[in-house]
Amino acid sequence: MSHENMNLTLKVWRQKNKDAKGNFETHQVKEVSPDMSFLEMFDVLNERLITEGKDPIAFDHDCREGICGMCSMFIDGRPHGPVKGVTTCQLHMRSFKDGDTVVVEPWRSAAFPVVKDLAVNRSAFDRIIAAGGFVSVNTGNSKDANNILIPKDEADDAFNAAACIGCGACVATCKNGSAMLFVSAKVSQLALLPQGQVERENRVLGMVAQMDEEGFGTCTVTGACEVECPKGISLENIARMNREYVAASAKKKD
Amino acid sequence: MSREHIFKSSLGKKLVMGITGLFLITFLLVHVGCNACIFANDGGVLFNEVAHFMAHNFFIRVMEVVLFAGIFTHAIQALLITLHNKKARPIAYAVTTNKNTKWYSRSMGILGSLLLIFFVVHWANFWVPTKIAVYTNQEHNTFEEMKTVFANPLFVGIYLVGVISLCYHLLHGFPSAFQTLGLNNKKYTPILKKAGAIYAVAVCTLFALMPITMYLGLIK
Ligand code: SF4
Ligand code: FES
């Protein structure tokens, strides 16, 4: 790990639109500071492409602090790059060395079509949420926070599941293109809390049905998602979703 | 939504894999237990008694049908899931890593296919001749048959490849089945993983020792 600026070769996927046949484009990026984030390195490259009158590389980003889940880049074979527990925006160039060749691809999933270059359309996740990932709330006066007691370990599990930022890295890395880590995190965070009980059964049935309809694959428990998830969502959530699903199917009246 | 969704959905398909898988895991215990009788080294007396009982017991006959149904359901369901999963990732990555998964977890399809090929040989060696003997009311010495088959180094090789494939298939399949059926937490999962590894290695070592000891003439 050097503290000197470095020169890198980037191989980036370029694709005009959803239906275009993309290809890799090679760029030399010079004098990259080790303190830059991976996205800032792309900003520098894009500035140059713009001054050269070329089309800048499209990529998604928003918060740049690891909480929005937008910065989907598949870097050297891993979603969000080589460092565990970080998103691309939090990946720093000090994780690379001078002279490295870095290959950057979009998420590859039938359910996440490429919009342009590295940007993919992840609205399939939004439709899964709309199919049940919510709770009904009582309107009226706000209640005392201690009205509803929640055991500490359940609160912890719910909170850990709720850390999922919907980035799609789990789908991107899974050889089956399965979205089960994401869906199970969303099912779990609500199923564990008293507020989530009203829609508990319809939620898991609805979200799983939508997940299948979007064309995501089926989990074969390789565990890649758990390793690559920037928020450390665990496979325990998928097991919980499986339980929820069986119980909900058994209880369903029609 | 009707109730049949449970078998059509991705989760339902996995449930079928898990349930049939656990059933096959149970069967293997019975199978290895019966065959281990050759290690009594009594010229196959005990083994042939057990084999005769298994071939003529009504309950075991019924379970045999269930067993074949289980194997084929497991295989066909796996094929359907694999085809579906291929469609979910239509364009492959230029660069991928193998650091985040175990090779045998990624290769269950290949291991399973090897096992199916092995089963064809295995059934031709033992199951078919036993059936013919039972239906033509002939005496059948399965022990002698084992000795003949395992005198051939080619068969010994095929059986060893089959057993090694089985071992890795089980190493992934055993804990996975419980995960799919919803059992995974900090308390039980480490125990299940260990139990699965012990089970896979023990069963497969026993199976592997059968052709090896017979080939070497240690079992008479
Ligand atoms: S489970 Fe992890 S990898 Fe998947 S969408 Fe949520 S945060 Fe991203
Ligand atoms: S840009 Fe928001 S998580 Fe990376």
Keywords:
heterodimer; A: 254 residues; alpha+beta; Ubiquitin-like (UB roll); Fumarate Reductase Iron-sulfur Protein, Chain B, domain 2; five-stranded mixed sheet; two-stranded antiparallel ribbon; 8 helices; 7 strands; elongated; B: 220 residues; mainly alpha; 3 helical TM bundles of succinate and fumarate reductases; 9 helices; 77% helix; 0% strand; binds iron/sulfur cluster; binds FE2/S2 (inorganic) cluster
Can you tell me about this structure?
The complex is a heterodimer of chains A (254) and B (220). By secondary structure, chain A is of the alpha+beta class. In chain A, 33% of the residues lie in helices and 13% in strands. Chain B has a single domain (3-215), classed as Fumarate reductase/succinate dehydrogenase, transmembrane subunit (3 helical TM bundles of succinate and fumarate reductases). Chain B has helices at 5-8, 10-35, 45-56, 58-88, 103-106, 108-135, 142-149, 153-180, 188-215. The longest helix of chain B has 31 residues, at 58-88. Chain B starts with a helix and ends in a 5-residue tail after the last helix. Chains A and B meet through helix 6, helix 7 and helix 8 of A and helix 2, helix 4 and helix 8 of B.
